[in-house]
Amino acid sequence: YSDKKGDSSLVWPVQTSSVTYVNGKVSGVKLAAKKNETVTAIRAGTVMFSGLYRGFGNVVFIQSKTGHIYAYTGLGSVKVTKGDYITFGDEIGTAGVDSYTEKPQMSLMVFQNGLPIDPAKAPRG
């Protein structure tokens, strides 16, 4: 994790009070959540993948019409399947629990042209 904090007033997949940037093998943000909190899509698109994914727990990948890929990871449960069209605000799952801190949370990564971008700057709606 980095010391950089994000803007919790933006539209995020959960009603978070804490946005922490993650650097390393993956780049994105960790969002504090409430236990079993509903996770919603921040951008409309088509589900590319839904389920368990190598070390990330339950994940949902959604590709928007602009080509951005939104990766919602560390979910407790998933409510969508591959091929579903999701609109802004649709429920895609619930927040999971961090295996180290044992606190409810989830992570969000956004990719454009195969490269990670700052999730705070990603299109919403």
Description:
By secondary structure, the protein is an all-beta fold. The protein has no helices and 10 strands. Strands 1, 2, 3, 4, 5, 6, 7, 8, 9 and 10 form a 10-stranded antiparallel sheet that branches. Strand 8 and strand 9 (104-112) form a beta hairpin.
Which descriptors apply to this entry?
mainly beta; 0% helix; 125 residues
Write a compact overview of the structure shown.
The chain is an all-beta fold.
Secondary structure layout:
Elements (H helix, E strand, L loop, with lengths): L18 E4 L5 E5 L5 E3 L4 E8 L5 E6 L5 E10 L6 E2 L4 E7 L6 E9 L2 E3 L8
Antiparallel strand pairs: 1-2, 2-9, 3-8, 4-5, 4-7, 5-6, 6-8, 6-9, 8-9, 9-10
The description of the largest β-sheet is: 10 strands, antiparallel
Low-pLDDT regions: none
| Number of beta-strand segments | 10
Order of helices and strands: EEEEEEEEEE
Kindly estimate the percentage of residues that lie in beta strands according to DSSP. over 45%
**Structural class by helix and strand composition:** mainly beta
Rg, Cα atoms, Å:
13 Å
Helix content: under 10%
Q: How many helices?
A: 0
The coarse silhouette is globular
Overall pLDDT metric: 92
Tell me the distance between the termini: 27 Å
